[in-house]
Amino acid sequence: MAEPVKVDIPHKLGRDAARARIAGGVGKLAEMIPGGGTVDQRWEGDTLHFGVAAMGQKVGCRLDVFEDKVHAEIDLPPMLALFASKIREKLASGATKLLK
Predict the structure, then answer these.
(1) CATH of 5-98, one of 3.10.450, 3.50.30, 3.40.30, 3.30.310
(2) What is the pTM of this model?
(3) pLDDT at residue 35, as a whole number
(4) What order of strands is seen across the sheet that includes strand 5-10?
(5) CA distance linking residue 19 with residue 17, whole number of Å
(6) Is residue 58 left, alpha or beta, with left meaning phi > 0 and alpha meaning psi from -120 to 50?
(7) What are the boundaries of each domain within the chain?
(8) Of 41-45, 58-62, 88-92, which range is least confident?
């Protein structure tokens, strides 16, 4: 297993508002996957665990919501690990828009 992609996304929403925005946006991930996909999610306190499956690949993610940032960790299968830097960039830009 490759090293997880880790990103800290700063925000000024506070923990509860950031968590609400994330909860409202994570379900839309399946719509963004070409060819369709599934998203499984569960909250444990202020940590969202979710997985995205598409085209025979599954990506596991964890978002820890803090008062001033969200810490994201994404476990990529070996085939997708080659795209880790692009995924990190996309996550940082997309999540920042969600948390504005």
Answers:
(1) 3.30.310
(2) 0.81
(3) 59
(4) 5-10, 69-75, 57-65, 47-54, 38-44
(5) 5
(6) beta
(7) 5-98
(8) 88-92
